[in-house]
Amino acid sequence: MIVLHGIWNRTEAGKFHLWAEASNPAKTDSRRSTKLAGAQRPRLHPFALMHDEMLEEVGELLGGLPLQDAETDTLTMRLPSTAKGPLPSPELVLSQPMDNKQMAEFRWWYMVTAALDAGTALDFLLALPDRSPMGMAFGSDLRFWIETARFCLELLTRQCFVPTLHEVVQGRTATCRANWEIFLSPEDAERMQQLARQMPPICWACVPPEERNVSLLQNIVQHFLNQSADAFVRGLLSSMSLLPARRNSRQSAITFQEQWVRALSSTDATFTAPGDAIKQFSTEVHNWLNHLQTVDTGAAFRTCFRLDPPEEEDEQRMDWHISFHLQANDDRSLLVPAENVWTERSSTLTFLKRKFENPQERLLTDLGKASRLFPVIEESLKTAHPQRLELNTEQAYAFLRESAPLLEQSGFGVLVPPWWQKPNARVGVKLRVKPRVGTASNMSLMGLDSIVDYSWQIAIGDAMLSAREFEKLVNLKQPLIKVRGQWVELRPEQIEAAIAFFKKKQARKDMSLGDALRIGLGEGTAEMGLPVLDIEADGWIQDALGRLSQNVPLSDIEIPATFQGKLRPYQLKGVSWLAFLKEFGFGACLADSMGLGKTIQLITLLLHERNKLNPPATPPSPTLLICPMSIVGNWQKELQRFGPSLNVMIHYGPERLSDQAFTEEAEKHDVVITTYALALRDKEHLTAVEWENIVVDEAQNIKNETAKQTQAIKQLQARNKIALTGTPVENRLSELWSIMEFLNPQYLGPGQDFRKKFAIPIEKYHDKYSAETLKRLIQPFVLRRLKTDKAIIQDLPDKMEMKVFCNLT
Predict the structure, then answer these.
(1) With DSSP H G I counted as helix, E B as strand and the rest as coil, what are the percentages for the chain, rounded to 5?
(2) 569-753 domain in CATH 3.40.50.10810?
(3) What is the pLDDT of residues 70-127, one digit of tens each?
(4) pTM for this entry
């Protein structure tokens, strides 16, 4: 077993040291070990793996990152030790017991590491799985940096970073360094402080005791955030051209602004300039950055800005209003209008039994700071007692889109109309689907690839618009418009997409039921690039979408009389769910945890299918059951026990049938059981039979899409497909995609698209939106219940865990 560690070392650019601790220490001479342990100079950590050994052990965790090119380095750390060596990490399971009788003290040790730069370290930490693989554990230090990297990614996605300039003057020349640094709002700063307080001691074990202080932990975290942000933003900008090309080489010299921008967007972050000349530019940069400084969050109140839309619509003039208030920090619903502030003659304002000290001074000071973020506020400062600000529509939109987030990040309160936060206050389309005229009405012949009739209509908010109505709104050339009593945002890119939508609306294109379902469950946008606000359905499609989205409850089937047993309520729900999906031609994955009765639920379904044919007009086609060889006999016994009326055929062994003989014999039985290995070997024989159902038990056996066994099983044809598994996802989301591709081909799209849309954002960046979207997409076709859920089964005893120690010989 090994424990993987990660330490951030605060050099100038920062290095992330990756090292691994093994359970088998190297053999050394005991007398020499004692002597060296007593010395003060560092010695090699006996449990640490060497560089190549470590990379070989963690090869599966690399995720394609170029760690093989990581710099081989060493790291010295002060660790708890005895005379025999350093104490092992708590996560490490040793092959030999340690002598705990010796007194422990701190000593210096060094280990060989793989040193990663900030950008590579961020990618590596974000790519690590939540759980370590078998035979490996993540140290507390590595787990801490994983959480810190995720916090950094969140800040980057919210664009919480700013450009900075640092200069060092030596004589007449100044060396300037341009960096990107994290900008923290008061809430984010508090989160960073909480994170720093949770830092494990091993994370600062490389810092000498004399250099440690009260702000050490916070400085380490902030240094990692800044260096990671700089590497991330710089990496994105390095491939872009931010400055216009110079056509004439005789043009004037490059300005300081241009040098700064180039240094921010290239691999070389430094530039030189005359010391006296750079001072003015540096002062301008720092003054600009000071505008973003947060207000005092330790006070009992803060300044708040509330934006209100025009009370009445006026074609000649539409005035928006920003009113100024003082807002209590411990009760954000308590607002003191600026009018009350200016009528107070003492230094203490009393409002609703609350006291506000020096309110006039605080309000004026905050308005001055806020005017740097929203310059329109300067107009109100021309009056002695500023109370409110009038805006036109363009200014109101600029406040909502640009200034309001900056003011919030700087610690001010901002109140905007509730419709601004609603996702439907935008341009989109509404979809209407119905069964195609002339198609079969038999729902059992339907499926996700069934072609449906559909129609699109443009919508703004809740209002449906024609092309002429939309054109009139566009001609207003306003970013905020009022449509039938509702304010909505109209962006230029949305206008272009809507115009393209109307142009292409006449172009007919088939839509499958799977496409409509994905849109209804919130995946992607319409084919014209606009978001889908709503979907309506008619006929059996309405029934199917309603039950798939769980808006309409499923009705329980009647338990067949031929079933020899008793179903629990949750098992009856599972059988009814399987029957419903088959009715509409959808594949199903029954993923109940082990012991909840997936076997008898499937047997009940098979009996239910045959009971519906009473009297049977034509014998139903057989069901092919593919399972591991070790449980073939178990399936045969369970079928005989719970469904004795089912004729079962075992296709296994050297005497098994083939060619026409197999086809004829299979059609005489209700269930044919075979193994995964024979599904590949006898693919031609199995393909010749028209199967009613194909069931794969222990479906994780088809998780590898490129395996020949998986490809052979997916080529088998049946009216319905079912997967039984207790672990639909073991390691990677690609395993879930492979199972879903067997059940409902093309529903989750090609594997490469699935990886871009879901696997990478979820596994590497822990994208909650992508995770929720994927959950909505697969939820109709995956049913998973757990034994620990008391709502599922109440008569199971509580789980008992006992530690039993075995002596190894």
Answers:
(1) 40, 20, 40
(2) yes
(3) 788 899 999 988 888 888 888 876 655 666 666 788 899 999 898 999 998 998 898 8
(4) 0.68
